[in-house]
Write a structure and sequence with these properties.
The complex is a heterodimer of chains A (509) and B (111). Chain A has 509 residues and is mostly helical. Chain A has a single domain, classed as Sodium/glucose cotransporter (Up-down Bundle), CATH 1.20.1730. Helix content of chain A is 78%, strand content 0%. Chain A contains 25 helices and no strands. Chain A is globular, with a radius of gyration of 23 Å. By secondary structure, chain B is mostly helical. Chain B has one domain. In chain B, 74% of the residues lie in helices and 4% in strands. Chain B has four helices and two strands, in the order αααββα. The relative contact order of chain B is 0.09. Classes of the chains: A mainly alpha (509), B mainly alpha (111).
């Protein structure tokens, strides 16, 4: 495979799939006006689950996860577990309660619950930072895909990819394209699993359910690759596995764009059941990711390729594409695979940039700077904010420090060290107050970035608080800080405590 | 201080009634979540033989995969789906029971 030539057929498929989302979005918009009376906006539990899953899927799930499993085998299963197990925490501890609390965004919740504009500002800045870090990972994925499609070096591909993403967001916004998350999920799952079935069939394994057929392929790996892949803790210690997994779990429960699915749902019972479907739909993809990794290794074994660790790492994020190409899949099918990953990254960027910009415009500009700002004024700030954030993301993505899933994990660590404790205590302990949450949020930020900040001077810090896995120590520490500081300062206003006791936890009394 | 006590909200000291039942279900699910996820990794480490890191858990095979790989990579995500479904079933039942009790109480109040 040459790295500098254009892959025309896949390129056409990627462009075609992205364009079809716009066309379908426009058609549904026209239809919605007439159907609205009958169906309303009710999408049902299964449809709600597909929406949760497509909201969740990004380049980290479709490209990064397979890449890390390819590199680290069992250690990287911590990503599979962390990114599914987190939904258990979210469902049992937060979903119903934040619905009854009824605020719109994470900073809004923190600001109202703790009755503090300062806490709202800190939470807003943290949410924006989470969006930016998450988007950097997406931009890296987009750049790698464009690089492969167009035969460009990374930075030129990043420029092309970044501009295409922003144009896509702007055009969809201007045309008022309706989001069709069920269609998105359908495209994602087909584009990920269809090529995998072809691969399994071509390689001679059970192809009807390749998620379960890849096991036999492990026997075909070279002895060394096999040991590296399967042996638990060959690539990392028990602590590293648990720390990473726990961090991703609490991060899932603290990600603003995931939490936001529950603030305003019309019916919490349907919303709870759609989590079950959503988790199942997510698991369908996560059961498949290891198969790409194993087939990738298998192909290398069969072709007699041995990559040194650095080369393997540099190509890991594209392993799904490389595997498909090495496996001799038809061009159009590789295109389908790329189109799925590309649209996941596009939609994630679109969603996160808009969440981030809304936070700039509402939580920072409107609530703190100019309370008399007009609607038009706030819109202008939001639009400007989107572009500024996109530029920041672009600059950070020029020199990405890790693999896609690793960068994403930093966003999870930040969310797990800050937003998750603020929500957990905010919901489950009426005594938590603004002093506590401010101290907690700041501690969380410090812990998240402790390894890059102080890791050089204190190697122990880098060992205990790896930047992708800091929340195993960070989240409990932040909770303790919040409890300690809250107890030595006056309780929060009676009004909010009554609201918590009577509305959030007393709806059945 | 007496006044403050009326608005007690605490995961570890839930008020009697719906909240206490709800918290029981939550804690049970969390135990099932934590023990199978992290407990299993601990077992793997405990049984691991020096140097190779292997054990009976990695030598047994299930669905063509080494048992531990199958358990973590395939069973645990399924287990989370099951846990979420069980949680919803319990909460649905709980909500129905308590709303019936509430309706009954309100009705008696009216007469």
């Amino acid at each position: 495979m040459s790295d500098t030539s254009t892959n025309l057929v896949p390129l056409m498929i990627v462009v075609g799939v992205l364009a079809s989302f716009i066309v379908v979005g426009l058609l549904t918009k026209a239809k919605e006006a007439t159907e609205y009376l009958f169906a309303g906006r009710y999408i049902g539990r299964v449809g709600g689950g597909a929406a949760i899953a497509s909201n969740w899927m990004s380049a980290a799930s479709l490209m990064g996860m397979a890449g890390l499993i390819y590199l680290y085998g069992y250690l990287a299963l911590a990503y599979v577990i962390g990114w599914t197990g987190g939904y258990v925490l979210l469902l049992v501890l937060l979903a119903g309660q934040i619905r009854r609390f009824g605020k719109y965004t994470a900073p809004d919740f923190v600001g109202e619950r703790y009755a503090s504009p300062t806490a709202r500002l800190i939470a807003a800045v943290i949410s924006i930072a989470i969006s930016v870090i998450y988007c950097v990972a997406q931009f890296k994925g987009i750049a790698l895909l464009f690089g492969w499609l167009l035969g460009l070096p990374y930075r030129s591909a990043l420029l092309v990819g970044g501009i295409s993403t922003i144009l896509y967001v702007v055009i969809s916004g201007m045309l008022g394209v309706a989001k069709n998350q069920r269609m998105q999920y359908f495209v994602l799952i087909v584009s990920f699993i269809l090529p995998l079935m072809f691969l399994a069939r071509k390689l001679g394994y059970f192809w009807i359910l390749p998620q379960f057929g890849y096991g036999a392929a492990i026997d075909g790996l070279s002895h060394e690759a096999q040991r590296q892949f399967v042996t638990p803790f060959a690539s990392g210690s028990l602590f590293q596995w648990v720390a990473l997994c726990f961090t991703l779990m609490v991060g899932t429960g603290g990600l603003p764009h995931v939490l936001s699915r529950f603030y305003m749902v019309p019916n919490i019972r349907d919303a709870r059941w759609s989590v079950v479907w959503g988790l199942f739909f997510i698991a369908l993809i996560y059961w498949s990711a290891p198969a790409y990794a194993v087939f990738g290794r298998l192909m290398e074994t069969r072709l007699g390729i041995t990559l040194d660790p650095d080369t393997a790492r540099s190509m890991a994020d594209l392993v799904i594409i490389k595997t498909a190409v090495m496996g001799g899949l038809p061009q159009w099918l590789v295109g389908v695979l790329a189109a799925g990953a590309m649209s996941a990254a596009f939609f994630t960027v679109a969603g996160l940039l808009m969440t981030g910009a809304a936070s700039i415009s509402y939580d920072i500009y409107y609530r703190l700077i100019n309370q008399r700002a007009s609607e038009a004024n706030r819109m202008a700030v939001a639009k400007g904010g989107t572009l500024v954030l996109a530029l920041v993301v672009f600059l950070l993505a020029l020199e990405p420090r890790g693999l896609i899933a690793e960068i994403t994990a930093i966003a999870f660590a930040l969310a797990g060290n800050t937003i998750f404790p603020a929500f957990l205590l905010g919901i489950w302990w009426e005594r938590a107050n603004r002093h506590g949450v401010i101290a907690g949020l700041l501690t969380g930020v410090l812990v998240t970035f402790a390894a890059p900040l102080f890791g050089g001077a204190f190697p122990l810090v880098a060992q205990l608080l790896p930047v992708t896995s800091s929340a195993i120590i960070g989240a409990p520490l932040v909770i303790l800080v919040m409890i300690g500081v809250s107890l030595v300062t006056p309780p929060p206003p009676e009004e909010i405590r009554r609201f918590l006791a009577e509305e959030v936890h007393g709806h059945m009394d | 201080m007496n006044d403050n006590r009326r608005y007690d909200v605490n995961l570890f000291r839930p008020k009697p009634g719906y909240m206490r039942d709800e918290v029981k279900v939550i804690l049970l699910v969390l135990v099932g979540w934590g023990v199978l996820t992290f407990g299993f990794q601990l077992l793997l480490r405990l049984f691991a033989e020096p140097v190779t890191g292997e054990s009976w858990l990695t030598r047994l095979s299930f669905f063509n995969l080494p048992l531990h790989f199958w358990f973590t990579g395939q069973f645990l995500p399924l287990w989370f789906v099951i846990l979420c479904a069980l949680f919803n079933l319990f909460i649905d039942k709980l909500t129905e029971r308590h709303s019936r009790r509430r309706d009954f109480r309100d009705e008696r109040h009216l007469h």
